[in-house]
Amino acid sequence: MKSKIFAQECFVRFSKNGKSAFGIYRKGLIGILDKSPFCNDSAVIGEIALSDVKLLAPAEPSKVVAIGLNYASHIGELHPEITGIPSPKLFIKPSTAIIGPNDKIIYPDMTHHVDYEAELGVVIGKKTKNITVQEAKDSVLGYCCLNDVTARDLQKSDGQWTRAKSFDTFCPIGPAIARNIDPFDLEIKCFVNGKLRQSGNSSLMIKNVYELISFISNIMTLLPGDIIATGTPKGVGEIKPRDEVTIKIDKIGELTNYVVGSR
Question: What does the pLDDT look like over 158-192, one tens digit per residue?
Fold first, then answer.
């Protein structure tokens, strides 16, 4: 299964003949941009068919700010000891964890249990600091599929999540940055080898997208291209070398990656 774009209009990043660029995708064609979409004055300077390029991760974030425990159903399956509604649990995935559509997730030798986590990714469009919930929408460039790959055994043994979440290739994003969509009612699914393993809806988030942006911006500055991973619904599970894993989100697309051993 190859990654697919569902969005009517979206930003993509692609490579052709060893060179990379940003573009605007519409109906099978990419309008090539002279600058990144994070610049207000970018313009279309040419056109190329989607079938003639390799899609890359659609953003190059300085950081991925991830949210743990943002769905009650997921809290129930992994942390039944938690009662009530917790505050958002923040952690950072490094930029070196980012890979794009159809790229390989490398299974590290250091772990013996790696899980998928299907999530809605929020791509920040401008420098954002100390904003209100009402102002948060203006900070969003768009949305993408995201897989918060996790070494579950290391997460449990360490007690904190940095090592388990930070391996190279542990943050696939893509296949595009969908614009002008409603983030409050999106079906989020994960398939492993074509079989449905996870299914949820963004409407079930404990803290919605705009609340998360405001909350994070009052802790740290979000820069253009930064991504917020908004948490995963219930149904997380294990992936192994030779598996194909696909994150599918309404109105955005399908993000497919392949798990391989480290050697």
Answer: 988 999 999 999 999 999 999 999 999 999 999 99
Same domain assignment for residues 246 and 166:
yes
In degrees to the nearest 10, what's the CA dihedral of 76, 79, 81, 86? Answer: -80
The partner residues of 106 in beta bridges, in order of sequence, read: 260
Out of 37, 55, 73, pick the residue that ends a domain: 55
Residues 25 and 124 in one domain: no
- Domain span at residue 48? 4-55
249's enclosing H/E stretch is strand 244-249
As a whole number of angstroms, the distance between CA 8 and CA 6 comes to: 7
User: Within this chain, do residues 26 and 68 fall inside the same structural domain, yes or no?
Assistant: no
- Could you give the number of structural domains in the chain? 2
pTM score, whole prediction: 0.94
- Chain centroid to Cα 93, Å, comes to 11
CA dihedral of residues 208, 214, 216, 221 (deg, nearest 10): 140
